[in-house]
Design brief:
Elements: E1 4-9, H1 16-29, E2 36-41, H2 47-53, E3 60-64, H3 81-86, E4 91-94, H4 97-103, H5 107-120, E5 123-128, H6 132-136, H7 140-151, E6 164-167, H8 181-197, E7 206-209, H9 217-221, E8 228-231, H10 238-246
Parallel strand pairs: 1-2, 1-8, 2-3, 3-4, 4-5, 5-6, 6-7, 7-8
Helix pairs in contact: 1-2, 1-10, 5-7, 7-8
The structure holds 2-phosphoglycolic acid (PGA).
């Protein structure tokens, strides 16, 4: 059976109090289910509260939205992987399009982060996705394959299945315009083929993200290519998110 990951990217929303209130409502609505994992990416300051609020639920993991690859040092404003782990993170986003396009995160930096996360035993979720002008110029495959290659530059074949990939077309994030299920699946196939060429042994989980909501999530997840979804806006309300994960 396909394992599905429902990943909630809270971006710059929900402080510690809001996370506790969210968890109380959400956990009352959603019982653990076979083959379904629930991952939450709260802001860094909310990590400990979120980890505490979801404690005891083996189907829930909490992760960092952003980490630095160095373990410690003079990097004002950054969160190291050991600090994120101490706060409860067992997974982390890498190369989210907002980090790439608003804050200048480079392909090369994504590679360092993925390698450092794997070395620390934290699951990287490597995000890739093309901008609208790149899609219109027919460059989607080239862009996502370039981002994949850079992100996985330090990962050897036996470790590939410890990485999760999220395909998030930039033009679909927060815009209300999602990729069609078929378009999403086509890009997932391109990524999967490349992962096989690189020697991935088992199935690497590939999530889709970009304006996923209660109205489109079922059709998207009917595509066997999708191993889950990475969701921003529609993950902020406990009732809406519970409805999506319960399908
Ligand atoms: P969205 O964000 O669901 O609000 O489009 C997705 C993401 O950025 O991960």
């Amino acid at each position: 059976m396909r394992r599905l990951i429902f990943a909630a990217n809270w971006k710059m929303h929900h402080g510690p109090r809001a996370a506790a209130a969210f968890a109380e409502k959400f956990l009352a609505l959603v019982a653990p289910a076979e083959g379904r994992d629930l991952w939450f990416f709260p802001p860094a300051v909310t990590l400990p509260a979120a980890a505490r609020a979801f404690e005891g639920r083996a189907d829930v993991r909490v992760g960092a939205q952003h980490v630095h690859w160095e373990a410690k040092g003079a990097y004002t404003g950054e969160t190291s992987i050991p600090l994120a782990q101490e706060a409860g993170a067992t997974t982390a986003l890498v190369g989210h399009s907002e980090r790439r396009h608003l804050f200048g995160e480079t392909d090369e930096q994504t590679g360092r982060k993925v390698a450092a996360l794997l070395a620390a035993g934290v699951t990287p979720v490597l995000c890739v996705g093309e901008k609208l002008e790149e899609r219109e110029a027919g460059q989607t495959d080239a862009v996502v394959l370039r981002q994949l290659a850079a992100g996985l530059a330090g990962v050897d074949a036996p470790h590939l299945e410890r990485v999760v990939i999220a395909y998030e077309p930039v033009w679909a994030i927060g815009t209300g315009r999602n990729a069609t299920p078929e378009d999403a699946a086509a890009v997932h196939r391109v990524l999967r083929r490349e992962l096989q060429v690189r020697g991935a042994r088992g199935r690497v989980s590939i999530l889709y993200g970009g304006s996923v909501n209660a109205a489109n999530s079922v059709a998207l997840l009917e595509q066997e290519e999708l191993d889950g979804v990475l969701v921003g806006g529609a993950s902020l309300d406990p009732e809406v998110w519970a409805g999506i994960v319960r399908r």
